[in-house]
């Protein structure tokens, strides 16, 4: 998405958002809140304070709000990684190929993971690190934030509920905005509560452990979340992370299975494209919320402490 700013300059009035729309990001934060262990929860509540209602839900959209401000334009490229794969025929994320200059969502997650626990930084800097993590762990679950094709889908015009949008915005917010009013009374907290119940005792309960194993069928387990964070923060460690790369590959794989699979001219919010993909979007949001909690729990309490 190297020209994303140019493209979004045109579409942002219509779509209004970058990355999962506000509801998607807030829901990731609200899901994470329900799985935080004691010290992680205490840090989050104290750091965010009343400005964000002491919650990762409201704080999750800050990174999108500042991104267009002059003081934060440098952060714009950190919301994605331009996977130069051959989607939809062949999907892959390769950190040395796709993040060669060291400025993408993969390095940003590593950077803000180190910074959020760096006690030599000010409270304000650590709060910013937390807000960036809250947001980027969400973004990395959006398949078109881990794809270079068509500028992450920004240059592909599509229809949603009779309106013209683009494929990237459709995944950020178009399909979610159709889901929320009818199913969750337009409430991110209602949505989050439903996803949390699915993780605790419903259709996601058998999957949740695999979401935080940092392995997949294409990525044999090399590290746990605990091992990954130790590897980043230990003074003699190599400083590279495996888990965010696994998460990126996980969402990038959807670019080969479903994201680009539609008929030109069909309305993607009223056709089978919607019914096929909205469950995947719900799963991505739940996954990223659960992964965010695991990440913060290891950072502040030393273990994932999750079901
Ligand atoms: C790391 O964080 C600092 C402070 O926000 C920022 O200036 C720098 O660009 C970040 N680098 C990456 C790769 O995220
Ligand atoms: C839906 O949301 C509205 C506005 O927040 C509220 O007044 C109403 O009671 C809610 N409906 C249900 C069924 O929860
Ligand atoms: Zn974003």
UniProtKB/TrEMBL annotation:
Residues 1-19 form the signal peptide. GO terms for molecular function: endonuclease activity; hydrolase activity, acting on ester bonds; metal ion binding; nucleic acid binding. Coiled coil: none annotated. The keyword Metal-binding applies. Keywords: Disulfide bond, Endonuclease, Glycoprotein, Hydrolase, Metal-binding, Nuclease, Signal. The keyword Nucleotide-binding does not apply. It holds the Pfam family S1-P1_nuclease. GO terms for biological process: DNA catabolic process. It comes from the Eukaryota. Belongs to the nuclease type I family. This is Nuclease Le1. It comes from Cyclocybe aegerita.
